[in-house]
Write a structure and sequence with these properties.
By secondary structure, the chain is an alpha/beta fold. The protein contains 15 helices and 16 strands. The chain folds into 2 domains: about 5-150 and about 365-375, Rossmann fold, CATH 3.40.50.1260; about 170-325, 3-Layer(aba) Sandwich (Rossmann fold). The protein has helices spanning about 40-55, 80-90, 105, 110-115, 135-140, 140-145, 150-165, 180-195, 205-210, 225-235, 280-290, 310-325, 335-340, 355-365, 370-375, and strands at about 20, 30, 35-40, 60-65, 95, 125, 145-150, 170-175, 195-200, 240, 245-250, 265, 275-280, 295-300, 325-330, 350. The strands form 4 sheets. Strands 10-9-8-14-15-16 form a 6-stranded parallel sheet, sandwiched between helices. Strands 5-4-1-6-7 form a 5-stranded parallel sheet, sandwiched between helices. Bound molecules: adenosine monophosphate. Adenosine monophosphate binds next to strand 13.
């Protein structure tokens, strides 16, 4: 079940019709001289080809998005005005509704709020992959009321991720990092069943290391997952770092940086210290495995890469992935941010924009928003 099973809008006769497009324009903004401006318009630019096509076919187009977390009420900081301005520059003639999350009905998947969105609308297109793992009204309700389709970017994201899991060229090497083992254990389990090797790094690796009798000092740790981590390691496919680097407890770290010298711990983090990156031997071992891959899926950094002292592991992995001729798919906001930080985003096969959505699609093979489209009304 790749992107092919999702309905498309290619054959619709939209002349003189009104089309509602759900997009994910949840973009970063910054205050410049008292005015909020978009700092990265990638998501808006990606939707322009669809809008242009619909307009050329004679449709009137209205887009809708969530923006930030205004928690179901009007919050001036989250008005879509800066997004609307940029959209009008890039593609004049497309309307943009006010922030969907100003209405509590959006996140509550309220049928009435959902119905209000398609009042006077003839067709609905979901082009918001990054929001399709959420059963929210703008995602779930329109397909039950008007003819609906998946947008081209949504289809491409789904097809890439599902095809990769279906019949990957082998060896298939998955790389999973990030802070919490609780967030990522599900995906490690799924990948351990499908991939040939799963390289685990980042804060989540220390719970795995603790099962091997290694000391982890005050590194991130979640006791409730010890047994599952131990079982995964027994399967033999999950590889964990053999050494780690970090700081003494209390030393400042993170995007604000710090000046304390980095400590190379080897395999064990002593009491009074904390691990923030994989060490040099792990970098070597991981990059050797990555060099053998024909398919790569990477989600999550190997350390606190926002702090240059702990970016070495993530940078080495990013460079190894970029140098590989394998089909490489990168998912998740932090891995994408890391690729950008090292100027490598053009060097991989596919960058998936939806962090949570790509994880859930890989873990469960489907998303609520995709089900809604498949079960919804067709022309
Ligand atoms: P996630 O959102 O789960 O992908 O986690 C990304 C975050 O994990 C980044 O902001 C990293 O700074 C953080 N992270 C990675 N490794 C560690 C670590 N060893 N200790 C604390 N935080 C980490």
């Amino acid at each position: 079940m790749g992107g092919e099973s999702l309905p498309t809008s290619d054959d619709w006769d939209v002349r003189g019709k009104r089309v509602l497009v759900r997009v994910d324009f949840n973009t970063p903004v910054a205050d410049v001289d008292g005015e909020l401006v978009i700092t990265d318009d990638f998501r808006i630019r990606s939707a322009v080809p669809l809008f242009t096509d619909l307009l050329a076919r004679g449709a009137s187009v209205v887009a809708c998005t969530h923006f930030g977390r205004p928690k179901g009420r009007v919050d001036e900081r989250f008005r879509v005005e800066p997004i609307r301005r940029r959209l009008n520059e890039l593609c004049p003639g497309v309307e943009l509704l006010e922030n969907l999350r100003f209405n509590p009905g959006e996140e509550a998947n309220d049928p009435e709020f959902g119905a209000s969105l398609v009042d006077g609308v003839d067709f609905y297109i979901n082009e918001a992959f990054g929001a399709s793992h959420r059963a929210h009204a703008s995602i779930m309700v329109p397909p039950t009321l008007v003819a609906s389709a998946a947008g081209p970017n949504l289809r491409r994201e789904v097809a890439y991720l599902l095809d990769l899991l279906d019949e990957p060229a082998r060896p298939f090497v998955a790389i999973v990092g990030g802070a919490k083992v609780a967030d990522k254990l599900g995906i490690v389990k799924v990948l351990a069943a499908r991939a040939d090797v799963v390289l685990v790094g980042g804060g989540m690796a220390y719970t795995f290391e603790a099962t091997q009798g290694r000391t982890i000092g005050s590194s991130l740790f979640d006791e409730s997952f010890l047994a599952e981590c131990a079982a995964l390691l027994e399967g033999g496919k999950v590889h964990i770092p053999v050494d780690t680097r970090g700081l003494a407890d209390g030393a400042p770290f993170g995007s604000g940086g710090g000046t304390d010298p980095v400590v190379d711990f080897g395999a064990n983090v002593p009491e009074g210290f904390e691990g923030f990156d994989i060490g040099p031997r792990s970098i070597e071992a991981f990059t050797e495995v990555i060099a053998t891959a024909k398919t790569i899926l990477w989600n999550g950094p190997m350390g606190v890469f926002e702090d240059p002292r702990f970016a070495l592991g993530t940078e080495a992995i990013a460079r190894a992935v970029a140098a590989s001729p394998a089909l490489s798919v990168i998912g998740g906001g932090d891995s994408v941010a890391a690729l950008q930080q090292f100027g490598l985003e053009g060097e991989v096969s596919f960058v998936s924009t939806g962090g949570g959505a790509s994880l859930e699609l890989v873990e469960f093979g489907d998303l609520p928003g995709l089900r809604a489209l498949r079960e919804g009304i067709r022309v």
